[in-house]
Amino acid sequence: MSQRIIYCDHNSTTRTDPRVADVMHQAAVEVFGNPSSGHRFGQQARALLDKSRSQIAAYIGAKPSEIILTGTGSESDNLAIFGSLYAPDATGRHLLTVATEHHAITHSADWAQRHGFEVTILPVDSRGHVDPDDFARALTPTTRLASVMLANNEVGTIHPIAQLATIARERGVLFHTDAVQAMGKIPVNVDDLKVDLLSLAAPQEAARVGAMAKDLRYRLAHQLDDIEFFGDPDNCLPNTVGVGFGGVDGESLAIALDLKCICVSTGSACMTGAAMPSHVLQAMGVSERYLRGSIRFSFGRENVPTDSAAIADTVIAEVQRLRKMSPVRV
Amino acid sequence: MAVTSEMCREIVGARWVGRRVAVAMSGGVDSSVAAVLLAKAGCEVVGITMKLWDHASVGGDNAKDGRCCTLESFADCRAVADQFGFPHYAIDFAARFEETVIGNFVSEYRAGRTPNPCAVCNIQIKWPALWEKASAFGCEAIATGHYAQVSVSGDGDVALLRGMDSTRDQSYFLWGVPHDYLARTIFPLGAMLKSDVRKIAAELGLPNAETPESRDICFIADGNLGRFMAERAQRDHVERTPGPIVDRSGQTVGKHDGIEYLTIGQRNGLGVALGRPQYVTGIDPDSGTVTIGDDADLYKRRCLLGNLNWINPPPTDAFPAGVQIRYRHEAARACVLPTSEGAEVEFETPQRAITRGQSAVIYDADRVIGGGTIDTITD
Predict the structure, then answer these.
(1) Cβ(A284)–Cβ(A128) under 8 Å?
(2) What is the pLDDT of residue A329?
(3) CA–CA dist B42, B111 (Å, integer)
(4) Which residue segment(s) compose the domain that B45 sits in?
(5) What number of other Cβ atoms are within 10 A of residue A289's Cβ?
């Protein structure tokens, strides 16, 4: 009997909804015209594009003309940064952002700094929050853009975007939010958020998974000692559980879980094996002990209610096994 | 050559069938075949590619050099794992590799010695560091593509043996692997010829069946030791230490750019013309003096070994053995006396270019008894 694979890494990516895949397939093979062409094929493609733009706009309370389609969430973040800094009418050369942003933002900020822009990276507290007073103080007369993510992809912390965006607006500063991770998990409306720019990607519908994440938290907290939950439990994406296990190597734990058919992320690995400790956890001041043993669980549409218990049982057993092992045991 | 599971089970050994085994995969043909043989034998293979260095830390031409630790080598490992349906993970050991293997390599050359980084890597990284990870996710053994053999007798006696293919035998680099690790080590290629490994790779349709041999020093992919040491000197703010080149009588005949660019037995690149071939016969790290001489001056009879690892307990008295003093050296008959600090080796006939820093491996026929690092050369 083959074991069911539990996918609990939905913040990395999700399976495409078959209904969406059908529409995309239809668009690719039937409505293939260039929407800028004047003929009937072009018109047909333009109509489909307009329709999808209207649907996206309606989803976030925007006007269709405000929607710019890009290839990915990262591309959208890049466009927000560089489009703002390099716009023909841009005057200020100061960019304000936060240490826990996605690399699509932080690496763009690094690039901007190397190319003569002034960049301020705001610190966060232990729950991943930026202080609104810090934010207000960091705005200068030359600030062109402030960019703060709506929800963090690693720890789930939700930022008070409406409050920060209001401060920026009062000072005449453009405000961008990376809402890629928040879409589908919490309400996202551009008017409520009071933002000028917002990045999003195909939303991951994850409304009913909050109970699973809560259940996983509860089980881990009650059956394991020496663990630390990351982020802000009161303002967190409902699907995300970031946790550090003391005395455990997170990479080994993630591989052990994968070999037991449970797919999760660590805060510190990539395809080519270059282990880089999570910049998010570092910015939050997470201690080396829990940084080293960090795992991110993120629930989504794939999951069924029994998953949280199944995951918890396996994680608890593996953590206890790893803790019993001396570091070098032959 | 048809690769049947019966054949694979015979190669791997019945005791490992059904067990979870970590296979260290470099992306080359040897470790790829090793992994597939294990998978076909019925082991639960977990492919591990060890990220040991990157070009930012070792320099060289990223575009054209290097075989392991490149994006292509990782892709080759993934392709093999995907083709044969086992999981594969890349794990970063670069910090530890830098600290132990590269650090030792650089300091040894600066001390006028000629290191064996592969032996150090096996001692520090391939076994302990990999085992730490592999055992954490439930592996019971480590397998590699080395051409060497391990045999474990019924009473748990472990023997490390030369690989069957005498032209590829890598037991020389494995002298430092502690006994307890060897008991949990599988060398699927140990009893095979390289030509057969290539045939199997072709038969299996492996993407890397035709890849060329890897180089001796993986992290100096361009093979340019001078370039590497010069960059390290700059990075560590270490000045080059030019010094005199003297002949056998002590008369200065030239000068060199620094002892870290030289090795015993080296003939070229000395910039000295005496009308006959001259070789580096001595390097004195304290005075920075390099001695040159004729080929005959390179022959020595005795050396002292330090940093010893006995794979099997040695006799307490002097015993006869074959001692190999570099990778491409035929073990020479010698008398070995274990001491409290290491071992004394006296060859029956003087050996050419015994070199401080190199591994000396002590064999009883094809069996590795132990080994150490050459510290002192006398006579």
Answers:
(1) yes
(2) 46
(3) 48
(4) 5-204
(5) 14
Pairing of strands B359-364, B319-324: antiparallel
> CB A5: neighbour CB atoms within 10 A?
11
3-state secondary structure of A260: coil
In a domain, A25, yes or no: no
Residues B91 and B166 in one domain: yes
Q: What beta strand segments (E) does B85-232 contain?
A: 88-92, 141-143, 148-152, 158-162, 185-186
Query: Cα–Cα distance between A161 and B334 in angstroms, integer?
Result: 78
Token couple for A154: 């690693």
Provide the domain count of chain B.
3
Q: Is A58 found in the same domain as A162?
A: yes
CA A72, distance to chain mean position in Å, is 13
Is A69 contained in some domain? yes
CB neighbours of residue B276 within 10 Å: 7
Which among A273, A328, A329 has the least Cβ separation from residue B92?
A273
Question: Is there a contact between A139 and A319 (Cβ–Cβ < 8 Å)?
Answer: no
Residue B125's CB is within 10 A of a number of other CB atoms, namely 18
Tokens of B123: 């001692």
Residue B273 forms contact with A (CB below 8 Å): no
Helix pair B71-84, B29-41: axis angle to 10 deg: 20
Q: Could you tell me if A230 and A281 are in contact, meaning their C-beta atoms sit under 8 angstroms apart?
A: yes
Rounded to 10 deg, the angle between the A73-85 and A103-114 helix axes is 30
What total of structural domains would you count in chain A?
2
Rounded distance between C-alpha atoms, residue A62 and residue A166, angstroms: 18
Q: What is the pLDDT of residues B291-315, one digit of tens each?
A: 999 999 999 999 999 999 999 888 8
Residue B222 lies in a domain: no
Q: Is A256 on the interface with B (CB under 8 A)?
A: yes
What proportion of chain B, given as a percentage, has pLDDT over 90? 74
Tell me the pTM: 0.90
Nearest to B377 by CA among B347, B338, B340, B348: B347
Residue with tokens 């003087």: B350
What is the pLDDT at residue A90? 86
Backbone angles phi, psi at B304, to 5 degrees: -110, 135
Tell which of B232, B259, B293 closes a domain: B293
Instruction: Give the residue from chain A lying closest to B184, CA to CA.
Output: A330
CB-count exposure of residue A91 (10 Å: 0-12, 13-18, 19+): exposed
Catalytic residue numbers of A, as ranges: 270
Summarize the confidence of residues B71-100 as an average pLDDT.
93
As given in the structure block, the two tokens for residue B108 are: 């040894």
Q: What is the least distance, in Å, from the CA of B180 to any CA of chain A? A: 6
E strand or H helix at B1: none
Q: What is the mean pLDDT of each run of 10 residues along chain A (330 residues)?
A: 85 90 93 94 94 95 96 96 94 96 96 97 98 98 97 96 98 97 94 97 80 97 97 94 95 95 79 73 95 94 94 98 72
B207–chain A nearest CA distance, Å: 19
The partner residue sitting opposite B89, judged by closest CB among A255, A274, A322, is A255
Closest C-alpha among B130, B132, B89 to residue A325: B132
pLDDT of residue A2: 64
A195 shares its domain with A83: yes
Instruction: Count CB atoms within 10 A of the CB of residue B165.
Output: 18
* Residues on chain B touching A272 (C-beta within 8 angstroms): 51, 71, 74, 90
| Range of the structural domain that residue A120 is part of | 53-199
Lowest mean pLDDT among A311-315, B261-265, B344-348: B261-265
Q: What is the CA A287 to chain-centroid distance, rounded?
A: 22
Q: Do the chains contact at B94 and A272, CB–CB below 8 Å?
A: no
Residue among B217, B108, B166, B172 at smallest CA distance from B372? B172
